[in-house]
Amino acid sequence: MEWVIREILEVGRILFREGLVSARAGNLSYAYKGKLIITRTGSFLGGLTREDLIEVPLEGESLIDNRASVELPVHRRVVIKTGKRAVVHAHPPFTVSLSLFEKTIEPVDSEGKAILGTVPVLDPAEPPASEDLPEAISEHLKTYKVVVIRGHGVFSAAESLYRAYSYVSTLEHSCRVKVLSKI
User: Fold this and answer.
1) 38-50 average pLDDT score
2) What is the pLDDT averaged over residues 45-65?
3) What is the dihedral sign for C-alpha 155, 145, 138, 101?
4) What are the two backbone dihedrals, phi and then psi, of residue 56, each rounded to the nearest 5 degrees?
5) What separation in angstroms does the CA of 90 have from each of 1, 59, 105, 172, 183?
6) Angular region, 19: left φ>0, alpha ψ -120 to 50, beta rest
7) Cα gap 49→30, rounded to integer Å
8) Residue 90 above 70 pLDDT?
9) Is the pTM of this model over 0.85?
10) Which residues 6+ apart lie within 8 Å of 121 measured at CB?
11) Contact in structure between 141 and 80 (CB atoms under 8 Å)
12) How far, rounded to the nearest angstrom, does the alpha carbon of residue 28 sit from its chain's CA centroid?
């Protein structure tokens, strides 16, 4: 379990250093032996410590769910529905900006095309913590490596947090290239 904690702490720092999250935005989780280790609500991903991690049951609810990120229902649903262990939620600015105007994000750079292909942009009728959003996100992450929530952020899932982070980073790079190519 020690390696899981180290991976969460390191990926949080990388996300912050790359500008993929702001001071109190974004969250991470990893499923391990029937539990979900998730960042605490309001955590600063750039300076995560062990105290910022909450361990909750993967299925069902617990008394400490309210200490975990408000995105806990999404993380649980994604892990359960996709079978992937690691979930990254970030707020990359170029990606969020493009999501305001596009129904899908089509990378124009070769790496984005090869690694991600088309990226869906979901337009939820309710706020991000709504009951329908976890289901929609998890369904899309069965097929796609990353999904964008219009005006909010992205979710990615993989077998490791490093891999899920890499999809978010690749998408943000592709969106930056796309925006710059239009200037």
Assistant:
1) 92
2) 88
3) positive
4) -125, 160
5) 24, 23, 16, 10, 25
6) left
7) 15
8) yes
9) yes
10) 99, 102, 103, 104, 105, 147, 148, 149, 150
11) no
12) 7
* Both structure tokens of 21: 């999250």
Alpha carbon distances (Å) from 88 to 27, 78, 113, 173: 6, 11, 21, 16
SS3 letters for the chain?
CHHHHHHHHHHHHHHHHCCCCCCCCCEEEEEECCEEEEEECCCCHHHCCHHHEEEEECCCCCCCHHHECCCHHHHHHHHHHHCCCEEEEECCHHHHHHHCCCCEECCCCHHHHHHCCCEEEECCCCCCCCCHHHHHHHHHHCCCCEEEECCCEEEEEECCHHHHHHHHHHHHHHHHHHHHHHC
pLDDT, position 62: 75
* Residue 123 structure tokens: 């337009």
Specify the amino acid at residue 22: S
Q: Could you report the per-residue pLDDT of 16-40, keeping only the tens digit for each?
A: 999 999 988 999 999 999 999 999 9
Cβ of 93: how many Cβ atoms within 10 Å? Answer: 16
126-169: pLDDT as tens digits: 555 566 888 999 999 999 999 999 999 999 999 999 999 999 99
Distance CA 23, CA 27 (A): 11
The encoded tokens of residue 149 equal 């929530």
Q: What structural domains and CATH numbers belong to the chain?
A: 2-182 (3.40.225.10)
**Tokens describing residue 139:** 């369904």
